[in-house]
Automatic annotation (TrEMBL):
Pfam family, one: Tryp_alpha_amyl
Organism encoding this protein: Penstemon davidsonii
Protein known as: Non-specific lipid-transfer protein
Coiled-coil ranges from the UniProt annotation: none
Bifunctional inhibitor/plant lipid transfer protein/seed storage helical domain: residues covered: 31-114
């Protein structure tokens, strides 16, 4: 019995230490997630197809980015992604939020300063 209590105490101490050491406010949304959400939009923004399932991804990503660090991370990933697609139509990229019925506080562009996104 004392061995079990000792194990539980060690687990509790380790958990508390991890919670204290863990960085706060870091973005939980990485570029892999952004790419997964936005992949259906690539044919549309590169003039190779209709929007298709693009709006589902845009709305899902918008819903997932709840904190400022998340929004800044998403902005940076979108900025990087938009700059890496050959033949991208920036007019279509910038129009995606409106097309899909969401409002984001920045323009999706390689020149966007994501550090100013709130």
């Amino acid at each position: 019995m004392s061995r079990m209590i000792k194990s539980m105490c060690m687990f509790l101490i380790a958990t508390v230490c991890m919670a204290v050491i863990a960085p706060r406010g870091d973005a939980a949304i990485g570029c892999g997630t952004v790419v997964s959400y936005m992949k259906p939009c690539i044919p549309y923004v590169s003039n190779k197809g209709p929007p298709g399932g693009c709006c589902g991804g845009v709305k899902g990503l918008y819903s997932a980015a709840k904190t400022t660090p998340d929004r800044q991370s998403v902005c940076g990933c979108l900025k990087s992604l938009s700059g890496s697609i050959n033949g991208i139509n920036y007019g279509k990229v910038g129009g995606l939020p409106g097309l899909c019925g969401v409002s984001i506080p920045y323009k999706i562009s390689p020149s966007t300063d994501c550090s100013k996104v709130k």
